[in-house]
Structure formats: structure tokens, C-alpha cells
User: What shape does this take?
Amino acid sequence: MRKKIVAGNWKMNTTVPEGVELAKAVVAKSAEVPSDVKLIVATPFTHLVPVAAVTAGTRVGLSAENCADKEKGAYTGEVSAAMLASAGCQYTILGHSERRQYYGETDEKLVEKTRLALAQGLDVILCVGENRDEREAGRHFDVCKTQVENVLFQFTAEDLKHIIVAYEPVWAIGTGLTATAEQAEEIHAYIRGIIAARFGAEAAEELSILYGGSCKPSNAKELFAQKDIDGGLIGGAALKADDFIGIALSF
Ligand code: 13P
Assistant: This one.
């Protein structure tokens, strides 16, 4: 049985004290959520150590939003996978569309980042998804296929056990435009098919594929009811503990 997961990507929001309060509220409300749903908060780097003190020993996992593509050394301003692991993270998001769009994240860099994260025992939440032009040109399947192949095909079926895929159509992120459950499901099923063809049916069946893009309590139920949608990567709605938990209650 593959895991059900709801992960909150806080992006560049909250001060450290605000983030600690938000994490405390998520932990406090997490008891309402059935135990087969994994909850994760992904916080800015500055928040990881104090939030780790809040989430340690609870059912809430801790994720970074990015990590460096180098192991260590003279890379001013970067944060390595080893630093994340030592800060108390169990996960890192990689390849978020905002990083691909604004910070020159390439699939080549993502291969390095994924390799370094896995080597430190971190699980990776790898984001893929098409932008609006690509969707309008009918290229969404091809774009997702290329992103999946370029990164995941560099790894093994064993590595895949430590990777979660998040399908986040860029046109749905922060726009209030959610992909319909059918639009999301057809891409999720397609991605699972690509994984099955390369790594086998069992690896594909065990891979959690999350949907992200204007997911909220009011639409999560329909999305999560789809066969190949295993949960959500939540942006805006993850900044309110009630909404985040409301989404986690939507399975
Ligand atoms: P929103 O939920 O704000 O659309 O963001 C989704 C996202 O980018 C999560 O990584």
C-alpha cells in the first residue's frame, strides 16, 4: 500500500516565531488525522532547527524546500543535504517550479541534488509540471515525461522508495485555478505508467504521487478520491493549520 501524504510547502512565508507557532498548531491538530496519512511541513532553512524541536517525536515530518547541488565547500549562501539532515530534516523538496522558473534549477542540477539528498538519508519530494503555455499547446504529457525521465531515470528502483513525486501544474500554483480531478488524475496515471515501464509495476505501485496547485479543504476530497492521487503538496493553505489539517482530513 503506497503512502498517503499531505505536505505543506511554506515557501518564503512566516518569520521564525510565526513558523514555530504554525508548526505547534499543526502538531496539536495532527491527532485528528487518521494515522495512515503522513503529515509533513516544509519550512524555510532558518526555521528548520526550531521547528525540528517542535516536530521531533511527533507524527509530523520535517522537510526543507531545496538543497545545494554540491556536497560542501566554498559555495556561499548554499545549504547542503548534510546540513539539512543534521538540522533534523527527513525530507527535502526539489525542483519546485518556482526554483525552476526564478533560480535556474535544471534537471541536471536536480539529479545532483537528489543524489546528495538520498546519500544523506533524506527522502526527496520531486516536483514536476507544465506551465500554462505548455498546457495550452497540449504538451503537458511530454513536459512531465521529460522531467520525470531526466531526473528519476538516473536512479534505481531502490532509490525510488525514498522519492515522492509532486505533480504541480504551474498554471494552478497560487492562482486559485485548480486542475480538475480528471486533469490531475490523467497526469498522475501517466507518470505512474512511465515509472512502471522503467522500474516495474511494483515500484510504480509504491510511488506516492502528490498533487499541488491551489489545493484547499474544499477541493481536496475530489482530488484525493482519484486512484493515482496519493495526497497533496500544499502552498497557501498550509499557512493556516486548520486548512492544512482540513486537507489532510479529505481522504
Ligand atoms: P498553492 O497551494 O499556493 O497553489 O501552491 C502549491 C505549491 O506550489 C506547493 O508546492
Notes: The longest strand covers residues 4-9.
